[in-house]
User: Fold these one by one.
Assistant:
Number 1:
Amino acid sequence: MAEHTPLLELRGVHASYGRIEVLHGVDLSLPAGKVLALLGPNGAGKSTTLKVLGGLVPATHGCIHLAGRHINGTEPHKLARIGIAMIPEGRGIFPRLTVQENLRMASYAGVDTATIVERAFEQFPRLGERRGQLAGTMSGGEQQMLALARGLATDPEVLVLDELSMGLAPLIVSELYELVARVAATGVSVLVVEQFARTVLGVADLAAIMAGGRVTAVGKPSEIEAELTSAYLGAAT
Amino acid sequence: MHLAQIIQFTILGLATAGIYAVAASGLVVTYQTSGIFNFAHGAMGMIIAYVYWDLRVRRHVPGPLALVIALFVVAPLLGALVERLLMRHLAGSSVITRIVITIGLLVGLLGVAQVLWSGNITPVPKLPRFFGDNVLRFSGVSLPWHQVVVLVCAVLVAIGLRIILKKSRLGVAMRAVVDDRDLAGLNGCNPARTSMASWMLGSFLAGLAGILIAPSLGNLDQATLTLLVINAFAAAMVGRLRSLPLTFLGAVILGLASSYMDLIGSHMTTIPTWYSDVRGSLPTILLFGVLIFIPQDRVRVSAAVERLGRIPRPSVAKALTASAVVLVVVVIVSSLLTGANLRALGLAVALAIVMLSYVPLTGYAGQISLAQLTFAGLGAYIAVRVVGPNGSLLGLVVAFVAAAIIGALVALPALRLRGLYLALATMAFALVVENVVFAGDAPFSSDSRPFGRPTFLAGQHAYLLFMTAIFVAFGLGVFALRRSAFGRRLQAMKDSPAASATIGMNLVATKLAVFALSAGIAGVGGYLLGCWKGQAGQSDFSLINGALPGLAVLLLTVVGGIAVISGAFVGAMFLVAMPRLGEMVPSLNNIMMILPGFVGVTLARNPDGAVMQVVDRFRERFGGSATEAVGDAPSDDGATVEVLGPEAFVIAGAAPSRAQLDALGDGLGVTGEQCGAVA
Amino acid sequence: MPLLDVSDVTVHFGGNIALDSVALSVEAGSVTGLIGPNGAGKTTTFNVITGLQPVTSGSVRLAGEDMSRLSPYKRARAGIARTFQRLESFGSMTVRENVLVAAELRRGRNGPRPGPFADALLERLSLTDVAGVRADGLPTGRARLVEIARALATRPKLLLLDEPASGLSDGESESLAELLTELAEGGLAILIVEHDVPLVMRVCHQIFVLAFGAILTSGSAAEIQADTRVQEAYLGTIEGGG
């Protein structure tokens, strides 16, 4: 284990909305350069875990470390600047800004606009064709491309993806995850929450299952996959 | 009319439009970048115009330097302060709190201006026009240079805003923060700093508008100057508080319409009163019109979770005891008072009735109205016209019925409106009534319409007791309402319109009923107020001008506690006592002028009002049982609103529901390894 | 004739199609499930049935009567009640008041008196102990039961439940299942959206699967569980990872 010092680590993290606690001690670690899929039923606390990572929800107990650095309580914009690129659930874009303006916003994380735009359009030529279009008027798949482009072009240490597939056709979801796999191959660590478990297990190095505000199992995708059908659809098969 | 004349009035109209455009674009910028509609926009413009006057005329600072200090130092500083001290703390607060905070700021800034620049100040505040009275003449048209400056400024603002918002990264960030504040943070942009920048920009635009418009006033007057900038609300509304080009279009429509009415008026031998009244109220009429025709959201599942206020529900015994206490206290205190102090106490009791009208309307049903004092004035005016100057108890009935009918009529077009739009529509209604109805009646407009009392209530003490009894009766009525089926319906409508509709509640009928009821209560309060004073009129029932402006009435009701019956009484006492204290103890005068506004501003931290806070403190100290409430609403994570995913669209906000969040117990069936393996 | 008949409903949001020719029906006295992955259009379907979401085309009929042009409160009076996925309880009111206000709105000439009726519902849903508690102070599981009690207080013919089991403990989930079965036996038509698929499989007579805004398939629990398309809709395709 020693050679795999985790890049990102959560230890005993608790979080609450108002007085209702939803995370009851989450332990999770993401080794550098790996893809970790976080699975589990609705309401297990997956999105909240990601929000804690993005600084949007404070952790009431526990510690969060990024590359050995303690990052509890750091504001979202500072986390973004030290290398956590989070694409939130829904669409991680500004609908009333143009494609180009969306990419310009990404420059706050530290990479200059010209570089971001160049990288994004190279990776997603379709975005280049629509640079002047309002992001909210693009198709769902294109919006997710834009969100991903923002995350990728800013040289993040960790890419955090929440339900990339929401409302998208299977073909587009596959395309997006192929891309995630390519990015991971370049050494970026990825933490991904996804309802289409089989799809994401195809690209993940590790999988963790959450239930009841805790991580209940961690393992290789092959170990986890067998349990999926019964977990999601009941014990018929 | 000659062509040259038409050209001249067109250009003058465009110059007026320019001022509206500058003022309105400032409003739109702050609303768009912070989600807060700044009712104090006009007051900020007024303060900056006064600063400019103070520097230039009073302290003889050279014109250009004074201009730079006022617009580029004082204005941004004011904007930054407002953002840092007030607006930053409003995230997740209710629409009512947001509205009341900026109204508190408005009232507070008016107080500050009064302290700094009122009374026998020398020289008389008056701003010169730019380039004095020099006139530009061409082909039969003569145009004051000042208007040319105004036009140039408007064009520069239009170009400047476009460059800032479209071309600069800060401008893109400002728009991004409105689209999705959290996401802007995730991008690495600091939303708090961006908001501050936009408040600085908004304050600059308010100041510019104030300075441009001030010379047209002759002598400066704080309330009038504030109102002039408020006229720009209509232009901002044409752009639906969103589009700057449409806002400029709205300003042009407004400017030209006013100017052409002047042109037509200049050809009339005698101008009828209604004509000049309509001309004067054109911006507010337009505002009301735009609000009514603007496309509205339908009932939908609530977007952001706001903290729900507490609505106390005292026992019958407590309510009766409180009623008795109010009666006894008023009897005892009034027996000790004479003259001006007694008059002030009576005024407070009458106002308490007007304020009480907010409890069912806003406290229970969550509907916002800035027109309650106007309903009071209408009740008083119509009742006195019907029953005549000789007192009659019938007047109370007339006041109730007339105000209730008008309340329902106003509510009818406003029914589709919610929150901010409803507040603006009732404000426009209040201003139109004030400028057309109240100003249109000769004795009423000069505050000298006689109101009589029935002979058996002619004495001051008898009448005061009578008013108190009516307050107590209405208070008990509202108390009973809270416990009735109708009261439950009001509260349900406030908590969740969508759920109310799906259990079979007719929202339209319910809103209509509560508007009528509360306008009726206000009408009775207004008539009593008139009878108490003996002579009353416009300035007793005015929104911003006058001794007891309507905005302050709302403000202090909320301060007392909008859902608390005794809060209305306490608020009214404050409202009347503060200026009275100032009169009696001159050293306190300044504080008393500023206090009402800034007391209102503290609401961000205490939305349930003063009475509830005192009760809580009392209970903390002396043990007593906690309030019935189990606790505050768990605050959800302000849902991200703009989500284009199909389902999330109607639910507005894809943030995980409270349900999803702590939901579990799902048959995932994985029991396996413990998380220790991870560490 | 089914009690609820949704036929050919299409809903557009701007350029996106949220629902695409959705047709489903619910019989009186039965529990029908509506399942599908997140974002499939389940809640939108509920909003269409209750009138909160206007349709681009298609119709909603209750007992043969066209509801399509009626406002939400008229549909409620015609017998449609619902709960919400994102809780919409009347948070500043007590639990009892939440139920009472609904009972009062449906007070009929010869119906039960609202007070005792509300109390009986609270009893039935085991909420009596929290009757005097403010609704927004309840944990989610119980708050969901309050919404169910409130919906039942309108004495509906059709009950729409949006994720009623989310946030419930295993025990609570168990009693919810029993309650649904009992209610259906009493003649109520129930349409339920739920992520707890085992629960759905157990209580539903008929299940519709919604994916990408369209009905993918429908059938009995056994048929649905055996359908590979349903598995794909839920879990994604394996080759997707590439």
Number 2:
Amino acid sequence: MIAALKDVEVRYGERPVLGPIDFALGAGEIVALVGPSGCGKSTAMRLLAGLEQPSGGAVVREIGKGETSLVFQAPTLAPWMDAAANVALPLELIGTPREAARRQAVDWLSRVGLAGAETKRPAQLSGGMAMRVSLARALAASPRLLLLDEPFAALDEITRRRLADDVLGLWADLEPTILFVTHNVEEAVYMARRVVVMSAGPGRIAGELAIEGPLPRPEGFRATAGFREAAETVSRLLAGGRP
Amino acid sequence: MRRIIELIAPLALVAVLLAGWEIACRVMEVPVYLLPAPSAVWTSLIADWAALAHAAWTTLSMALNALAIASLCACALALVGGLSPFVEKAIQPVAVTIQVTPVIAIAPLVMIWTGLDHPERAIIVLATIVAFFPIYSGAATGLRAADPDLQRLFALYGASRWQTLTRLRLPSAVPALVEGHKVATALAVIGAVVAEFVAGSGGAQGLAWRIIESANRLQTARVFAALVTLAVMAALLYALVDILERRILAWWRGR
């Protein structure tokens, strides 16, 4: 176990937003969290990141500061810095000297397929490229926990599929714990070993499903009966039915 | 083609208006002290250009001095306010009150304090007060404008307050800062001219002083010549600031 929510509740004023929920992430796990908008997925993520405090219950984090990374829906790059400087930022914030951070950043950019884009500014990158920079920035600090908050939501289908495979490849190499928040059922099933389904008002865990099959996914995985069956089950859970 | 039209259209309008003005003055034989024809204004401009240029420089340098002082004070205060929400809350109502008080009403006091024989000091102080608020407001807004997700990222990696300020909040403030300075530049010129009118004496012989002096002598063509000089000066300054703004923003955005 690397991080967990234990009987956690979040209320904004009198309004209950989340919970009570119990949720744990094992070391090296890759888990997808699906649910309708407003079900508290992102709140759960911020709790696990330590960026928000629960109104009740406990958040357990067995990782230190600087060992958690976040990727947001938008690339969220600083427009005034070039790609390498954006990737180097977390390293510098945790105390890596500037030049070493830049060298590592250039390295990370090439690992996400952006060799040669080091001096490009975010405005000069396509949506997919900017997301890769964002991913490189999240990985640069060698996080033990990587939180992905609907990172592909703004991208086109081809780009998001390619990025999904890239994330799985990087996960296989580095084995961080990944929590992947999405509202896309197929993406959840494709990306994760375990899909946790949430329901809204207030956010609760509606069910959970283990996904079979190798990771990273082999070609044609989306066409297999197992994939489609799992996606069906998750959809039913989302709709409020039994698995 | 469209650029050429955009350039020619306003010039054509000015030419038509000037021609109409000239013809009307000649046909109706308007007395020159009431409304001089454009040709008379032109003659006055040519005859007086050295004095006008000197007056323009006097007004401009007072406005620019005021802008520099306002910029320093406003940025420093905004920075302190950015570091301490308590200070920001304290400054905000005071700054707004100074902003909404008509500067002309403060002028007599400022003149007493800066010394009646130094009108240029009073003018700079008054123009500074006018130029202060847009810069302060821009800087304060800018320092709060950092992307909330980027702020989360900084928190996630345990960034210090200083790191968050220098690496995130200050760079994020650039567009609002530039905009504030742009507005302040125009206001500084207006402030300097208004203050000159109030100060009125011969210590600071800027364009406004020339306008008053010529009007008192019913030399209306010279009034117009000074007005034209003032308008051209303000327009050129604005154009310069506009180019600077675009350059800086292009650099900031990376395109």
Number 3:
Amino acid sequence: MDYAAQQLLNALSFGAEYALIAVGLAIVFSIMGLVNFAHGEVIAFGGYSMAVVGTVVTGNPLVLMAAVLIACVSVSLLLERVAFRTVRKADITTGLLTAFGVSIILQNLYLLLGSPRPISATQFIFLDRTLLIGPVHVSSLQIYETVTTIAAILFLTLFLKRSYLGIAMRAASRDFQMVRLCGIRANRVVATAFAISGLLAGLACIFIMARRGSVTPHMGFDPVLTAFIACVLGGFGSLPGAVLGGFILGFLEVGVLVLLPQTAGGLAQAAVFLVVALLLFWRPDGILTPATEKGDKL
Amino acid sequence: MTRRLLNPDQKRGLIGSAMLAVLILVIVGAYALWGESYQARILYATFVNLIVVVGLQVFMGNGNYATFSHAAFMGIAAYAAAICVTPAAVKALSLPDAPWGLNAFEMHPLSAALVALVITGVIGALTGLFMSRLTNVSITIVSIAILVIVHSIFLHRTDIFKGNQALFGIPRVFGLGHITALVILAIVAARLFRESRLGLRLRAVADDEVGARAMGVNVVRARMIAWVVSTLFFATAGIAYAFYLGTISARPFYFNYVFLTVAMLILGGLRSVTGAVFGTLLISLGLEIIRWLETGPTLGGVKLPEMLGLSGLLLGIVIVGVMAFRPHGLMGNREIEDIVFRRKKTTEVSK
């Protein structure tokens, strides 16, 4: 029973992290059809700015968290302005490959200007303590993570349903041209999407840093790959789909680790990907895809 | 109605691939005349990449999808060929724990290559069942899934694949002559595929899937055949890789190699075989220069610092720059003969 509860919490916190990143990918995709491969490098940028601010300015965790969030939002906005504005009207493959290139550039810049070896930044480690609730050992980080994700998703929903810009964004995901015809600036809508995406990346970065305590050029790659898969699984561009996909992957990952025998531990990732491929075979456009006919957007 | 053997486009295709073959032969000739022996390795690697990129063009280029699984197929073929061809005596040392009697037999290189091609083709057909039924982003995801699954199997089954350690003792049966012949064959095959009915259909699907379906194109079948054909290109490259180097490990068959080859295809232009060839040659040349810079050479009396990551940076900049300024690559929809001779009838060539 304790074991089951512990694994459930593990799955929830993994799922929360993936959902956080996946929503950041989905919100950009829903508006401009861009598969943002460079999202992981935004997270890594947050880590690097934390390392720099932490050593040069102050080690105060609250200040550092703010610094990480600001860094992620601004680099996300910068990428939109510099790289992604030129491919806004291009097809999905062009956008995907551009993002892919941006991701390679950033990784190698970190390599060139930083170091291929991990740089330690341990100010957030204090978030990760072991608590004892009844008979169950619980990591406080996992609780923070789950709660923050749920709060972030609630705020985001509120923003999208109630605010002027949020409604404009939801409309833009249906029909961007129409939104522009209604007199709303395209650049503002897209920039907001990137800012939100950066903010979510920043939150994810804080949790990743609390767990790892160090930053490397490639640290964003794996979580974003998983989140990317979560997005596709849930239905690309659908925000509830991204959350659902994130949690499905979290549960899948923990489930596979629990069910597979110890000797096959190296195959966990392969097993997860296999299940995902089968799910996609069942529903090629993801589970919660908005039903659009092909060739609708002519 | 009598069908001609080749329609005009296919004839042009043959002329175009002959021109590319001449280009390849000129490069090899230049090496034979002035090259130094260490450059043979670079040239060989470039040609292996060329086969991969041309193979990518078959599915990714004609169909306009982004797929990242080619390194996995290369790895499968390389390992299959290597395990078949390595002498049993060597395998007793390198793979002492291999199951199913894998270390108890050996084959002629030619039959080993055939076995590897068949294995890769069958796996390609099985994965093709998935790939041909998926849509845009899902294709990318499932291709990544294939790459990750195959890589983790390589790492996990150390008794067969040795994981990140080297599988050694493969007879080095290939040389520059073999690979040159293979490259030329690959170019001709890819070009003929592009101009064949299937290639034309696939390009039509890329332009307008609904329209193509309405004209009676069997989209799933077109994707399926193209997918399997392209895996055979990757298999050929993998076999050539194993037969030249003599040792292989799982590490090179992963994301870094995928990035490299995709960048090559993008630079040249997804849609044309000529683009694939030019992109590969240009990036290979660029990387050699960059690698030399990375080691921190002395240039005009100034000692440059060591710069790790410069080559990766270049690849990224190439991809982003091409996508931003020439979304269809250097060649766009054109092939080499379109530059040399004008088309007689003015058909719509570029977007």
Number 4:
Amino acid sequence: MKRYLAVFLGILTAIGGFVDIGDLVTNAQVGARFGMSLAWVVPVGVLGICVFAEMAGRVAAVSHRPVFDLVRERLGPRVGFLNLAGSLAVTFLTFVAEIGGVALALQLVTSVHHVAWVPCVALLVGLVLWRAKFSAMENILGLLGLALVVFGIALWQLGPDWSGLAREAFTAAKPAGEQWTTYAYFAVALFGAAMTPYEVFFFSSGGVEERWTAKDIGVMRANVLIGFPLGGMLSLAIAGCAAVVFGPLGISVETLGQVGLPVAVALGKVGLAVVVVGFVAATFGAACETGLSVGYALAQYFGFQWGKYVRAREAAAFHVVLVAAVLLAAGILMTAVDPILVTEFSVVFSAVALPLTYFPILVVANDPQYLGRHVNGHVANVLGVGYLVLVGVASLAAIPLMIVTRMGQA
Amino acid sequence: MPAAALRGVRVVLAALSLVVLLAGCTVATPSAGDWRATAARSLEDSASAVSTARLALREQEAERTWSTYAVTLAADAEKQTGTATDGVATLQRPEGVGVAEAAAVMDLLGRAEDVVRRARQRLVAGGPPPDALLERLDTVAQQLTRAAGRLG
């Protein structure tokens, strides 16, 4: 019974923790502008993150070592450094965006400008990273993130033309008046948002923190293969709400407040309150995950003690990195840079960094020295190689598309 | 690589750097097409902001949002209309664009700024919005969309 409860809790937290600021903003932008015609990208991205998260989780469970550590050992310091540099830059950018997202969500409740909230949010994130237990942090914020299910209820309540939405989703037809390059740019951004590298590093490092063993592979797979796709459904619901409410009015989504507005239209103040709780939980949870991922990445590459399962004194350098990351992120946001703009950059650069992140995972997951009989099977390898080709294409296309479309403005 | 070839590569790189530097120092003059594309984008952005302000006002009237949320939405919309106006105002009008055409675009963008500001003020003040304000928001949004369509 206890085991079933653990699986259930894991799935719920995986759903609640799946959506972050990148998913919130990008899905709403795409829904408002392209209807459901880009919905196909979400399942493609979700399957991709499932494939590589399962590999990374299996590596952690069997070898008891996180991915960065093994990448450096297996592929050498140069490839390891490329892996580190790409992932770290994008993860830190996402960390900045998440802290900004929490501040924006608090602005919606208080009308106090988000820049004024940044120091408070940064302090709170720093305290949680320093003091909170790993499992408590993951479970509480993951469960609160489930509040975003309200987007699904709102979509239902809005009473859309379901057959029309389904037709848009399945025909993937570009709306008239939009350029193919813009369509492709947003497809890459959605893909980047769904396959954010930090999710895999956090997942595998979390596995080590929670002392997974080979016996936990089943639970880990259930979390990934059930939780992530259901989290992907939330992304589709966000896009659907934006498509139904904003599409006919020609409204483009530029702020976090707009992302939640369709819920207010459908469910009123109660729905809006729930969605704001969801915003805070999702962005705060992701801020903690990305902040920890910054520390994990550096500590695992340079080989110093890391983790929440040891005392701060025993992992001093790791904790210093966490504090430095929080201070730097807060400093960047205090310049009054728009967190939504940072988010837009983070999802595109996430797409750029994908091959640097996922190629080494595929290599390590095929090494019997680390995984013994748990090495990748045919299905994992076919999917892994297929996705490497896909992330390669997305990575090469991301920057040119960003320039040509002026970040989707064309 | 032989020393002479290396020297040649250096000279070419230096010349290219100089060309790029000089090109960056010149003032960019948009073509008529570029100006109209920018104006159309600004008009669309303004139309979106005006429609957002109208929706915020309508939802607040129906008591489906709370005041701070609606005010934040309207304040963001106001900022967007300002940014959209700046996008055109800071662009030099090229030869192929008439004074009247440019003035009409600026006039519309100014009206958008004005009407969104009024919506924000109404939300801050509280109470039901006058029908005239909702109608005006609707009219301006339509005018902006039509103008963007003509230019785009």
